[in-house]
Design a protein that fits this description.
alpha+beta, GlrX_actino, Grx-like_ET, about 35% helix, Thioredoxin_CS, 3 helices, four-stranded mixed β-sheet
């Protein structure tokens, strides 16, 4: 999977790191709501950190979420994810 692949309808792509507490929290929430996601660790996947930085003013801020429509959000709430996935 390349860093630019859009998620399937009803799912998200989440850029994260293994040590990110906000990422772990969002994954737990997504699992409890049955929202599918593909996780990409920006420390393991070539070009992922650069993509995240390009979306966040040069910062490698995680979690950064990509929605099926190609839009992105940084550290979104579960409510925001649910609204944007079902839109």
């Amino acid at each position: 999977m390349t860093a630019q692949t859009l998620p399937a309808p009803g799912t998200i792509t989440m850029y994260s790191t293994a040590w990110c507490g906000y990422c772990r929290r969002l994954k737990t929430q997504l699992d409890s709501e049955g929202i599918g996601y593909t996780e990409i660790d920006i420390e393991d996947v070539p070009d992922a950190a650069e993509l995240v930085a390009s979306l966040n003013g040069g910062n490698q801020t995680v979690p950064t979420v990509i929605f099926p429509d190609g839009s992105a959000a940084t550290n979104p709430s579960l409510v925001e994810v649910k609204q944007r996935v079902s839109a």
